[in-house]
């Protein structure tokens, strides 16, 4: 009889705990929606964290990491989903790792994740990021290949955001590829290709005269040329 009473008590406790967890989950689901409605990013993060604790899923972790990386909180994003490449990673998971690692200066590791996405579905947007990383890591030939692909496939509607100024700005992705082409051309042979590089940067600036990165790169080359004269 005592064993039966104990069993009933345990089962009742488990039932109450399950009900409490379900109620908590419903609460944080409503809280999540309200925070989204109010545009409260930290509130959304708090809600998603609680939901992942109550009912953990990889999709929730990916969503939480995406919010972190969108806010520039790259280390928190990687702490949420890890930095290893897994066969089961979603495209979102892979993209988050690529963006966060790149922002943290881990360019070689970021390149691996961008290339993984590119192999699944090539696009000018991914080609630009890969070319930029290859340029920074010294793979000039690889970067040139991606730039040529980008120029052949980019559309006039495609744009990219740049962050080297205090206020981020967008410009034409085609202009972006021409900027990279100019830098790559110069990197191949600084003396022989200086004029060609400047001309290529001028093509980028013809598309967008306010393209700051192309402008300051052109000014640097012109300054070098003037110093040689």
UniProtKB/TrEMBL annotation:
Xref: InterPro entries: TPR-like_helical_dom_sf (IPR011990)
Q: Would you say which domain of life the source belongs to?
A: Bacteria
**Entry keywords, A to Z:** Signal
Which residues, if any, are the signal sequence?
1-17
Write down the SUPFAM superfamilies for this protein, in alphabetical order: TPR-like
Name of this protein: Tetratricopeptide repeat protein
**Organism whose genome encodes this protein:** Gelidibacter maritimus
Give the taxonomic lineage as stored in the record.
Answer: Bacteria, Pseudomonadati, Bacteroidota, Flavobacteriia, Flavobacteriales
